[in-house]
Structures are given as C-alpha cells and as structure tokens.
C-alpha cells in the first residue's frame, strides 16, 4: 500500500489571498489526494511552530515571511515551496502571481473612468518584492501614456513601526497634495482600506474626487471600507493548486523546472463604489458610458445609447471613440464580457444562462464573441479561472 504523504501547510488564515491558496490546495487533494495535513491557524508574522524542528514529514507549503522561518524549513531537508516571495534569493521554489497583468488591469480600469491623474500607494520599498513590482509596472504604464504617477510607499521600519495615526496622517497629507480628480491603485486591500480612511480624515470625497482600486478582493475588508472598495481578484486558488501539484512531483523525486513560477492573468475586477467615477468633461459621452454600464447586460444596442444623448449619432460616436479609444458597440461588448467572466468564475450557471444574463441575443453568438475576444472558449475560461 502506497504511503500517504505528510504535508505541512504553514499558511496564515488572516488574509483572503492565503485563504484562497488553501482552497486551491483543497481542490488538489479532492482530485489527486489524499495527503495527511499538518495545519494550525496562525498569523503571517508568527514564528515557526515548535514541532517543525523534529518533524519527519514529506513536504511543506509555506508563506515564508522571515529569515527564521526560511532557515528552519531549509534545515528540515524536506521538499518545500514558498508562496510568499518576500525574501530575495531564498533557496526554495516560489509560485506566485504575475504582477504585470495585475498592474495593467488596475491602470486600464482607472483610465477608462476618464482620469488623467494617477497615483500608487504601496508599502516601503524592499519590504516585499512582489509589491515593489506591482508599483513599478503601474508607474511604467502611466508614464508610457505620457502622464506622471505620484507614489507613496512609506518609510522602512527602524526601531519601531509607525503608529496607525502617524501612517494615516502621512497618507492624508499626500492625498491633499495630489492633482485631482485622481485614480489611485494600492498594492493590496489592507493599504486600500487605509487610503480610504485617510480620504475621510482629509475630507476628500470618494469616488467623486478620488477613485481607488486595490488588489486581492478580500470581500470582508472591501465591504467594511467606506465606500466599499473595488479590488482585483488575482485567483489565489489557482496558485494554491499549482503549488500542491508541484509539491506532489517534488515528493516523488522530481525537481521543479524553474525556481520561480508566475501565474496569471488575474480573474477580473470586483467593481464597487470606490471607482464609481466618470472624470469626463463631455456630458453626452459621460451619459452614454453610464447608460452602458447600467444597462449593457439588459440587451441594449448602440442605437439605444445614442438615443439618450442630445448629440447627433455620428457626432457622439466620434467623440466617444476619441475619449475611450473604442466604439459604443465595443464598449457594450466589453462590459458584457466582463460580467460574463465573473459569472463563469463564480457561479454554476451554464453558458446559455450566462449568455442571457449578460445581454447576448443567442448563446451561439455569445460563444463566438467570447472566443474572439478572450482567445479561449467560455468553458475553457471557466475551467482555467474558476475558484476552488
């Protein structure tokens, strides 16, 4: 009888990203398991568990956040994978998200609001390489379009961490100096919630003056924020599944093909009130965009959108394309497909039902449009991106 592998999961439960990793591992176990799991709830900054020193298991999946944790894992000699990526040069395989498409999705979402001013709020440089890259890619995208990106990263911790009040005052002062209206991306939901709180302190209206998008889509934190916070779902369960799959191979004696594996793109954007802004000077185009976003999934056509405006159809179409870079029809299709992708990933609705709910006349036409724009069928997309 084949021995059941004993695997330790040193993954915190306090963050949505980490919980998503665990869901991915659970999916792997349902499909390929079983494993005997060593797991106890803990925080990201907790020290290594006492039992790890003498543990005789077969594999470890860990969110390594300190040199102490890294050294104890390496000392075991057991096959292990890092799911944090916080330590540069760590001698463990790392699996994580590709931050370039995350930054691109965030920037495009803010740019589509008609914004011309952009900013990024992150954590101190060097604290986490992944968050550094998220900022770097966002800044590059803004600058490629000929704009300036204002950045606040905070200071490295010296003897003691700055208090919450000190951090909020620093963020509020930064916000007051930004050109407005402004679109802000934050490195993760924790930072996004801080920025929204600082906006209230500085009497800066969200989303009228500031539009904010964060990363990780922790629904509890996003909905506790005022206003509720738009966030990018990076699909962490996919990372967890891939890590479990790699660890399974390592426990069978196979070495990983590479030390760093980045998976993407993100699943999509969970749009909430923090980005319900349209910073567009053209009243007719703004009205058309709002009408599309509110009614695209009800089966509206370009003619219905034009009928809402005072401008002549050809004039509105020209101005619309000049501002957004796409036609009215293309914008309707984009909004419908964004909704369809979320339904494919988060529900059990069949493709025909999703076609109806997203405003497509026929399932066959929906499938054709989806494949044309996404490069895969709707069924393939669901299999690739749905949560565990």
From TrEMBL:
SMART domains: HTH_ARAC. It holds the Pfam family HTH_18. Keywords: DNA-binding, Transcription, Transcription regulation. Transmembrane segments: none annotated. GO terms for molecular function: DNA-binding transcription factor activity; transcription cis-regulatory region binding. Residues 286-384 form the HTH araC/xylS-type domain. Gene3D superfamilies: 3.40.50.2300, Homeodomain-like. PANTHER family: LACI-RELATED TRANSCRIPTIONAL REPRESSOR (PTHR30146), XYLOSE OPERON REGULATORY PROTEIN (PTHR30146:SF24). This is Xylose operon regulatory protein.
């Amino acid at each position: 009888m084949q021995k059941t592998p004993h695997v330790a999961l040193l993954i915190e439960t306090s963050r949505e990203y980490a919980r998503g990793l665990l869901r991915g591992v659970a999916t792997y176990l349902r499909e390929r398991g079983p494993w005997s799991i060593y797991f106890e709830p803990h925080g990201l900054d907790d020290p290594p568990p006492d039992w790890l020193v003498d543990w005789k298991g077969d594999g470890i999946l860990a969110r390594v956040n300190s040199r102490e944790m890294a050294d104890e894992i390496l000392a075991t000699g057991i096959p292990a994978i890092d799911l944090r990526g916080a330590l540069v040069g760590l001698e463990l395989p790392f699996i994580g998200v590709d931050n370039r498409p995350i930054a691109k999705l965030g920037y495009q979402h803010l740019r589509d609001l008609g914004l011309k001013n952009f900013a990024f709020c992150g954590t101190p440089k060097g604290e986490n390489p992944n968050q550094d890259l998220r900022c770097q890619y966002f800044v590059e995208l803004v600058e490629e379009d000929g704009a300036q990106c204002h950045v606040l990263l905070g200071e490295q911790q010296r003897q003691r961490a700055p208090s919450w009040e000190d951090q909020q005052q620093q963020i509020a002062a930064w916000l007051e100096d930004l050109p407005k209206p402004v679109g802000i991306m934050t490195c993760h939901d924790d930072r996004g919630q801080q920025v929204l709180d600082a906006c209230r302190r500085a009497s800066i209206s969200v989303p009228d003056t500031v539009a904010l998008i964060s990363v990780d889509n922790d629904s509890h934190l996003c909905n506790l924020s005022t206003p509720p916070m738009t966030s990018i779902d990076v699909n962490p369960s996919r990372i967890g599944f891939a890590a479990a799959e790699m660890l399974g191979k390592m426990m069978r004696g196979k070495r990983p093909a590479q030390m760093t594996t980045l998976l993407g793109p993100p699943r999509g954007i969970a749009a909430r009130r923090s980005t319900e802004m349209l910073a567009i000077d053209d009243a007719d185009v703004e009205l058309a965009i709002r009408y599309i976003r509110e009614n695209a999934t009800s089966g509206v056509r370009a003619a219905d959108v034009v009928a809402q405006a005072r401008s002549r159809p050809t004039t509105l179409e020209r101005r619309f394309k000049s501002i957004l870079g796409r036609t009215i029809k293309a914008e309707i299709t984009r909004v419908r497909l964004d909704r369809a992708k979320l339904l494919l990933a988060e529900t059990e609705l069949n493709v025909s039902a999703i076609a109806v709910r997203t405003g497509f006349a026929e399932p066959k036409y929906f499938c054709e449009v989806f494949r044309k724009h996404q490069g895969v069928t709707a069924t393939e997309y669901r299999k690739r991106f749905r949560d565990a």
